[in-house]
């Protein structure tokens, strides 16, 4: 048969798109044995689904495109959608200010299972390539060809290879002439230079800090590790850092507490500026530890409904695009927003 829509990827964006497409012939293809693999582990298995404080400035990418997308489906629209489906996320600010969590990630997956009962699932199926003949797409998979009139690529980024992450979405985009913005691990910890090896002696210690990176000032918890540093504020910092210095304020507040281990570690460092300590990270922990991938399909070649401007009836949504958010539910929001807008307008 020839499907109306084939969706590559059963993650947040693909499942959202499938749940709102008004068609009975939808095929969802995923390399995992179950749907929503990344949803399942997110937010400590409670799914950090969106954030109270939402706008384009929490994202790396085309600010106008992101802003216009949120005009069509923002955090309030997502919460309404979830509430209508008996999910009632609540704010928990222990990690990142304004973050909404669900009771369980399983609840989100179960919701999508109900909303996509009309879909045909092709699980444990790898996509190798896509060809188009006349007006029909031929999706080459490990289980044979799948034919469809329209294709939505929602295959995510390169992070979490253990969950089936691959570059197939980028390869498909390239095949149809799309420009790919250089990809890198994001929301990931930093390794450090020799001058910061003292970080490693504090492994396990956490402190509230502010970090300046480019024109951004971020605040939150920094965690010293055996490799360097991590923690919520470092993960968000990694989104904006590519090379060069970042500045750490280890005592950003009047009541900032400096742990004894920290004070002992810095006492023999010459000219240590506690409010403006500059480091140039050696690198990051890599894709296996990164929560998301920054870079991806160039958004300038995508229209407002997430259709390719270069190839009709080909769509790209979610993390595969060159739009990446900070830690705190922002990337799930982007996945759901792009999936909803695409799904509502595809047929």
* Cα shape: elongated
- CATH topology (level 3) name of the largest domain: FAD/NAD(P)-binding domain
Order of helices and strands: EHEHEEHHEEHEEEEHEEEEEHEHEEEEEH
Helix content: 25-40%
CATH class of the largest domain: Alpha Beta
Q: Say which CATH homologous superfamily of the largest domain is assigned.
A: FAD/NAD(P)-binding domain
Q: Note the main sheet.
A: 7 strands, mixed
Number of DSSP-assigned strands: 21
| Secondary structure tally, helices | 9
Structural class: alpha+beta
Q: What is the CATH architecture descriptor of the largest domain?
A: 3-Layer(bba) Sandwich
Distance between the termini: 18 Å
Q: Report the mean per-residue pLDDT as an integer.
A: 94
Extract low-pLDDT stretches: none
> How much beta, percentage-wise?
25-35%
Describe the structure.
This protein is about 25% helix and about 30% strand. The protein is an alpha+beta fold and about 350 residues long. Strands 1, 2, 7, 8, 9, 10 and 20 form a 7-stranded mixed beta sheet that branches. A 7-stranded antiparallel beta sheet has the order 17-16-13-14-15-12-18. It starts with a strand and ends with a helix.
Characteristic key phrases:
347 residues, alpha+beta, FAD/NAD(P)-binding domain, Elongation Factor Tu (Ef-tu), domain 3, 2 domains, 7-stranded mixed beta sheet, 9 helices
